[in-house]
Amino acid sequence: MLRDGDLAAAFDHASPTYDLMTAASPGYRSHLRRSARRLGLPGGGAGLTLLDLGCGTGTSTEALLRAAPRATVVGVDASAGMLARARAKAWPERVSFVHAPVESMEEVEAGGPYDAVLAAYLLRNVADPDAVLRLVHRLLRPGGRLAVHEYSLGGRPSDRLVWKAVVNGFVRPWARLHGDAELYGHLYRSVLAFDTTDAFTARLRRAGFTRVRCLPQPGWQTGITHTFVAQRP
Question: Which one, 3, 34, 64, 229, has least CB within 10 Å?
Answer without folding.
Answer: 3
